[in-house]
């Protein structure tokens, strides 16, 4: 079984900060996190660069691909070792996706930290 992978926007300070929170929750190192700007990262999960630029992308250990709020819930559940976030997502996916779209559309305006790609310039496209 492969380790799940979460692709995030490495040029986004809000995304980088959010990733830090996820990593703190992932105390057992269950999830591999990569910026989609890392050469070969989108292709490694079967995603396109444009898909990744629109929303966070997830590939589960079974090969399942998710995007947006579903991907966030899958990553959170994996980090915590529980299926509860995805169960809750299935109950209210519509509002979660709409909220995700608003956040994703405004992510560059939200408070964050130094983006991953700024800290690792040689590794991003």
Structure description:
The protein is α+β, with helices and mostly antiparallel strands. The chain has one domain. Helix content is 49%, strand content 11%. It has seven helices and four strands; from the N terminus they run E-H-E-H-H-E-E-H-H-H-H. The chain has a four-stranded mixed sheet, covered by helices on one side. The N and C termini lie far apart (29 Å).
Short account of what is shown:
The protein has seven helices and four strands; from the N terminus they run E-H-E-H-H-E-E-H-H-H-H. A hairpin with a 5-residue loop joins strand 3 and strand 4.
Structural shape: globular
Number of helices: 7
Total count of domains: 1
Helix content: 40-55%
Low-pLDDT runs of 5+ residues are: none
Mean pLDDT: 96
| First-last Cα distance | 29 Å
Rounded to an integer, what's the Rg over CA atoms?
A: 14 Å
Class from helix and strand fractions: alpha+beta
Number of DSSP strands?
A: 4
How are helices and strands ordered from N to C? Answer: EHEHHEEHHHH
User: How are strands sequenced across the largest beta sheet?
Assistant: 2-1-3-4
Percentage of β-strand residues: 5-15%
Largest beta-sheet characterization: 4 strands, mixed
